[in-house]
Amino acid sequence: MRTSTLMTNQAVLTLFPVIFPILAGVFLLLHHIHDDRQRHVYVELSTILSGLLACAAAFCSNGELLVLWRATDSLRLALRMDALARVFILLIAFIWPLVTLYAFEYLQHRPPEDRFFAFFLATCGILNGVACAANFLTLYLFFELLTFMTLPLVMHSQRTEAISGGVKYLFYSLTGAGLALGGFFFFQACGVSTEFTPGGVMGAVTDPAQRNTLLTVTFVTLIGFGAKAGLYPLHAWLPIAHPVAPTPASAVLSGLITKAGIVAMFRVVYFLAGASFLRGTWVQTAVICTALLTILVGSMLAYLEKHLKKRIAYSSISQVSYVVFAMMLLTPSGVAGALLQVLAHAFAKTCLFLSAGVVIYFTMPTSNYHFTDQLKGVGRVLPITMSCFTLASLSLIGLPVTGGFTAKWYAAVGAIDPTLGWLGITGIVVLLISAILTAGYLMPIITDAFFPGAKFDDSHLQPVHMSINMRLPQYLLSAGSLLTGILSGPLAHCFNDIAEAIL
After folding, report:
1. Number of H helices, E strands in the chain
2. Cβ distance 420 to 394 under 8 Å?
3. CA-CA distances (angstroms) from residue 108 to 7, 354, 361, 366?
4. How many CB atoms lie within 10 A of CB 268?
């Protein structure tokens, strides 16, 4: 009886990082805190406590199933803190408080703060729910809620372009979710268990006709969930939603919320279909080709784009698809590379958006728009910001020692698998081309910022004094981009253990 009670208490720990920030956000929405300082203390303490609850759940929970609601044996809402959930929930616990701290000063020019932080807190809890979902129904519920919680963040300014961007974001997200919901209905109709099981549940299906049906449904489901990750052809919302949203919202949209699509795809590939079911099929080939196409399209569009936040958004389309490519290799190195890229991209891209936001905040405080040709000499007035921007950019490019390099290295090693043939070689070539394009659209920003040329007139430049609220997140996130590479050995060892369990 004592053991049973202990296990139940450990299972309940999984609920706290989900429900607490949601309730904190609802309270803030219903009870406006008019004093800025009190509001900031409430929001930051709520965010930090949410992160501590996530850490407690990650380290103390034994992976027991927590059933929240049951309609039938096959339809229930349930959470489970497994190894994959731990990776994502700990990443959220580290990054979310930093972005919140940054947002306090940034939103001074972009009220109302109460509404923004209410939805911001709730989004954190729902994202934790996506990570810890134990079955398809629970995953889908939180996945849909995530769209509706983030929509007010995108439309925060209520300008015409923000409303338009929000509508487009809603359309693509609901289209993707609709495809995923159709997959759920088909899985149920085919008698396939939608409880997430390491290794998948479809490998036991032997009937050729049913296997073909399940392959088609799995592909449609992956494309649907891929909409949130910016996978082609449902990628167009990113460059529309990111520029119109306040920078803190853009940072988590790119760095963390796109990972909701990745979590969902991971669950479908490794916990529902199974690597053995997908390996060597047309679904593996089609999704890899789609990911490689998205990598190239995103890199090219970023290279051609002059708008700063749009360029970073197009970069997200490309960089997140690295995860999809590595994940679909269905090899241990591929899984390790995918999870390393999740970490590296989250740190680097969040840092890039926060750095871009600092440039906008101090040079164009009443606007959310800035173009790359306006950044000459900005490194002289914002040297810390542009140094952090540089380190994050080097990680995205894949410079050795950074997290981006080790992630791409493991992905390339996974692609060498002989069973992949031409597909793996093509993937490596695309990764190299994308790295060159990434350098092409990020390095000119850095060189113009620090080396504007001998003819540049810096007499108009004014020194900028940043608060610790804006500086500290940039320091820690850029350091994260570097540490992900330095600590890639222990991280890869951990991720290889995950790969063994799900392969």
Report:
1. 21, 2
2. no
3. 46, 15, 10, 11
4. 27
pLDDT of residue 366: 54
Global pTM exceeds 0.85: yes
What are the beta bridge partners of residue 479?
none
| Token reading at 219 | 């592909």
Supply the Cα-derived Rg of the chain in whole angstroms: 22
Q: CA dihedral defined by 281, 284, 285, 286, rounded to 10 degrees?
A: 110
Look at residue 371 in the predicted model and tell me its pLDDT. Answer: 77
Q: Report pLDDT for 137.
A: 92
Q: Longest C-alpha distance within the chain, in Å?
A: 79
Judge whether 149 and 123 are in contact, CB under 8 Å.
yes
Q: What is the pLDDT of residues 60-87, one digit of tens each?
A: 888 888 888 887 777 889 999 999 999 9
Q: How far is CA 346 from the centre of its chain?
A: 6
Report helix, strand or coil for 499.
Answer: helix
Distance CA 142, CA 403 (A): 29
Mean pLDDT over 395-413 rounds to 91
DSSP characters for 35-54?
Answer: SHHHHHHHHHHHHHHHHHHH
CA distances from 16 to 58, 71, 140 (A): 11, 23, 19
Helix ranges (DSSP H) in 197-281:
208-226, 238-244, 247-252, 258-266, 275-278
State the residue for tokens 């947002």. Answer: 103
> In the numeric block, which tokens belong to residue 212?
């073909």
- What single-letter amino acid sits at 363? T
- What b/e sequence results for 209-229 when a residue is b if at least 16 CB atoms lie within 10 Å of its CB, and e otherwise? eeeeebbebbbbbbbbbbbbb
Q: What angle do CA 325, 346, 150 make, to 5 degrees?
A: 100
As a whole number, mean pLDDT of residues 39-55 equals 93
**Tokens encoding 33:** 């805190």
Distance of CA 317 to the CA centre of its chain: 11
The pLDDT tens digits of the residues spanning 176-213 come to 889 999 988 888 888 788 889 888 888 777 778 888 88
Which residue shows structure tokens 């974001």? 169
Instruction: Using pLDDT thresholds of 50, 70 and 90, give the confidence band for residue 1.
Output: very low
C-alpha 353/C-alpha 474 separation (Å) is 10
| Separation between Cα atoms, residue 125 and residue 145, nearest integer Å | 10
- Residue 238 confidence (pLDDT): 77
Task: With a cut of 60, say whether residue 3 has pLDDT above it.
Answer: no
